[in-house]
User: Which sequence fits this backbone?
């Protein structure tokens, strides 16, 4: 053979040759190669023809490599060991967790026992120590915008709408109740002396990203105050001049301090589904998949 270009076909023949040698013969290699004896023999003869040397002797004495066959095997063993190390290194580079992960969150979820983000971050930092985390806190509608635009890899919130092009993964639900602050005319009034007609006569707070849907039950033309986050709503309600919804976990310490009370909790309450929003079409990196997996695991095991 004057010249041989190594291509896929030759690599397959080399692998077959090595398997036969390491199995100790054609018959012994049948199971591993899942080929018939005649097919193995044909391929072996083809390789000998391509190389221009006889690789083995077969007969009553069994399978035995020729001197040339042993030299070819030894050389191929070194070549394939090098290829295996190369493949392992490439896989390591591919799977290495580096870069930056940008996460979007809504405000004031720190007190929510259903959302153990700190445990997620602990596990993520241990598993991907070279990844930089960037966390942005924004209203849900802005989070959706920035996931679509690619500024965020993913966002976690209760989202006001479904945006085409995004995938949503359910995590948990957050309970919201309707609150009144100390000093408000309804604060000391028993629930059996309060109804919706009475409530709608007072100043009501709405969340801008819900488009006033959270006060639809009161059948008023417009809210008296609009906020983009929970802290803004809480400050208005705590002033004793406004009424509005807050997450129950966020309101809990103010209730214990005697500064808030829930009004008509059997009527004025709703559950917000929290989800991960991620782009449907944009290829997800191992870093994004790892964070999403850890988040689901921690929430499932809480």
Assistant:
């Amino acid at each position: 053979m004057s010249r041989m270009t190594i291509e896929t076909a030759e690599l397959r023949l080399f692998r077959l040759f090595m398997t036969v040698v390491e199995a100790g013969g054609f018959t012994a290699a049948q199971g591993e190669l899942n080929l018939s004896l005649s097919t193995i023999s044909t391929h072996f003869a083809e390789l000998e023809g391509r190389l221009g040397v006889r690789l083995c002797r077969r007969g009553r004495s069994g399978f035995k490599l020729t001197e040339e066959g042993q030299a070819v095997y030894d050389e191929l063993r070194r070549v394939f060991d090098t290829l295996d190390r190369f493949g392992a290194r490439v896989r390591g580079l591919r799977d290495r967790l580096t870069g930056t992960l940008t996460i979007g969150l809504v405000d004031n979820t720190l007190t929510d026992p259903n959302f153990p983000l700190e445990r997620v971050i602990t596990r993520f930092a241990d598993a991907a120590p070279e990844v930089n985390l960037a966390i942005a806190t924004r209203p849900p509608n802005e989070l959706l915008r920035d996931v679509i635009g690619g500024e965020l890899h993913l966002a976690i919130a209760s989202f006001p709408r479904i945006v085409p092009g995004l995938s949503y993964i359910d995590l948990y639900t957050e309970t919201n109740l309707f609150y009144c602050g100390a000093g408000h005319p309804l604060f000391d009034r028993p629930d059996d002396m309060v109804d919706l007609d009475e409530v709608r006569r007072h100043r009501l707070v709405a969340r801008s990203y819900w488009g006033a849907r959270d006060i639809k039950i009161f059948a008023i033309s417009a809210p008296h105050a609009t906020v983009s986050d929970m802290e803004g709503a809480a400050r208005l309600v705590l002033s004793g001049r406004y009424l509005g919804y807050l997450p129950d976990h966020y309101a809990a310490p103010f209730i214990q301090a005697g500064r808030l009370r829930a009004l008509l909790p059997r009527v004025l309450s709703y559950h917000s589904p929290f989800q991960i929003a991620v782009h449907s079409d944009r290829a997800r990196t191992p870093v994004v998949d790892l964070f999403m997996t850890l988040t689901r695991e921690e929430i499932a095991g809480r």
